[in-house]
Amino acid sequence: MDTSYASQTRLKTLWHLSWPAIIEQVLVTMVSYADTAMVGVLGAAGTAAVSVNAAPIWLGNGLMTGVGIGYSVQVSNAIGAGDETRARQVIRQGVLAAFVVGIVGLVIYQLLAGVLPGWLGAEPDVLPQATAYLRCYTMAMPFTACGYVFSAILRCMGNTRAPLYFNTGANLINVILNFFLIYPTRTTHLLGATLTLPGAGLGAAGAAVASSIALVFSGIALLLVGMRQGERFRVHFRECFRPDRSIILQAVRLGVPSAVERATINLGQIAMTAVVASLGTVALAANQIATTAEGLCYLPAYGISYAGIALVGQSVGAGKREDAAAYGTLAGKLGFGISVGTASALFLLAPVLAGLFNSDPQVVAQAALMLRIVAFCEPFFALSIIFSGTLRGALDVRIPMVVGLVCMWGVRVILALVLVYGLHIGLAGVWLAMDADLILRGLLCTLRWRRGRWTRKCGLA
Description:
Layout: H1 3-40, H2 44-80, H3 84-112, H4 116-119, H5 127-137, H6 141-156, H7 161-181, E1 184-190, E2 193-200, H8 204-227, H9 230-233, H10 245-277, H11 281-317, H12 321-355, H13 361-374, H14 378-393, H15 398-422, H16 427-451, H17 454-457
Antiparallel strand pairs: 1-2
């Protein structure tokens, strides 16, 4: 086959799987923007109540992502090898794993909800809202786990549209419910008429309840679609769901390094949240807004990464080294190019984006500065996201874990402490440390992929 034609064909295949995932990430984040803005109307305390819980929630989501990787990569390998029976067995085990992990997470978060925000430095005026937010948000953990696991499985089966539809729909439900749960009953004027809008007036807790309901919807929907994905892969609840030792052990080998990586990174983010919280409520609110707006840059990278994992995983299962290498490299190039454009937009539009989420001038000014600081590292962050994913698809799961551990704790945490408490440059020190972490992470993951040592891990050497 002509090399240029083969490359074009692969790029079309990669883009065919990537664009629904990219649109999903963009739409979900746009809805998240609206969600953050709704809470921001409550003032800095409301935004801070959400912000102080962001890292613990990311930690749980990271662990569930690891579970999803452990089973979805096995599904992609089985499909590539043409082993439909194995694929169905893995899907059944994924159902079991999602519910077990979700229930364990639910119990842990409910036990810690009363003390965790305080440990992270929430100020007295923020603490009641922060506790209520965490308790309400994590009530949906079993269904959240189903959403994470089966979004990953469906993407590795080549179905990136179902996660797009249901995750976007869930976020729209979240925004609609916010109107009725965050604010009290109030009057508004529309086309000359006065309308009374009912409201529960729950504040930040209302936002959490809305999110929890939305997560229940998406989790159930994705679970059902994942179990009914065509006749070849259809499974039923009446079938045997007895734990399968070989599948679970392989899921552990694939998922634990990813979960440890995410846990390592998110524990570092928790440490950074505590540092930010020590700088006051304004800094905490600005940090939350900047973190939310920053998603504009790395959204396409996650979408491309999902496609990369699926295509590399299927190529590995089929024993096609050239295809695996080509798909991974194309994914990196595509993600880097798109990220350069989105990072430029982030830098130019930073004050506008920050102003969408809060009316406090101090919060907006600090958030805009953080966005301009982080814009410089976003293309490298995209590379780390994509090549971490393709390495996992090629069963090389330990290197992303080691890179995440070293860069988060050896670079970001230490450098942030020096810049904030040693040089006293405030919130900017946290974000400059983030730049150093993400740039190094992107370079190391790119180097690992380009050297090709991952071929030994998946038996393609």
